[in-house]
Amino acid sequence: MEATTNSKKNKRKLNQTKQLVKLALNDGWSQVEIAEKCRTQQSVVSAWNKGTKQGTEQQLKPLLEVFGYKLRRN
User: Fold this and answer.
1) Cβ contacts of residue 4 below 8 Å, gap of 6+?
2) Is pLDDT at 3 greater than 60 in this prediction?
3) Cα–Cα distance for residue pair 11/8, rounded to 1 Å
4) Which of 12, 30, 55, 68 is the most buried (most CB within 10 A)?
5) Among candidate residues 28, 19, 25, 22, the one with its CA nearest the CA of residue 74
6) pLDDT one-digit tens code per residue, 23-63
7) Which residues make beta-bridge pairs with 56?
């Protein structure tokens, strides 16, 4: 039962995806670097940046670890 709950959490879309990507870009990261950290493609990061797609908590975990505290503050 717990595995189901955990996998749903990992697939939950993060509403602050765009803000998180903007924080990383403003900190000097490139879309390619963000894609490598999040184990996805640069085109996906571009869609996140435009706000046309949202990443999952699992995908964005590396960015949340670095910039998550700034999201809570805003």
Assistant:
1) none
2) no
3) 5
4) 55
5) 19
6) 999 999 999 999 999 999 999 999 999 999 999 999 999 99
7) 13
Instruction: Report which residue type is found at 50.
Output: K
Q: Where are the alpha helices (DSSP H) in the chain?
A: 2-11, 17-26, 31-37, 42-50, 57-73
Strand partners, 13: 56
Backbone CA torsion sign across 50, 74, 61, 13: negative
What single-letter amino acid sits at 66?
A: V
* Chain position carrying tokens 């797609």: 53
- What whole-number distance in Å separates Cα of residue 54 and Cα of residue 50? 10
| Amino acid letter, 37 | K
